[in-house]
Amino acid sequence: MSGEERTCPKCRGVMRRGEIQFPVERLHPQSISPYTSGTFFGGMPTFEEVSVGKPYWEERTGEKKGIIFKREEAKRLAITGFRCTRCGYIEFYAQER
User: Would you say 47 and 30 are in contact if contact means Cβ atoms under 8 Å apart?
Assistant: First the structure.
C-alpha cells in the first residue's frame, strides 16, 4: 500500500488509511506480600492494565520446515485498511510487515 490518494468505490469520497486495534484490559489485584495482613494494606485498590492488540492474517505457505519434526510453515501479514470519510465504507488489505 503506497500513500497515494484513494477514492471510495461506492460514493467517490476520500479514503483515509488506518488499522484495526482493540483494547485488551486486565485487572490485577494490588498486593504487597501474601504474608501481610489485610488490615494494614486492606484499602488498596486493584489496578487496570490496558494494552492494544492488533489482529493479523495468517496463511499457510505449503512449505514444511523443521529439523526433526516437520511442520507446515505459516506466514503472518499485518492487516491495514482504508475508510471512506463520507459513507464509512472500509477496505482491508493484508500486507507483509
Answer: yes
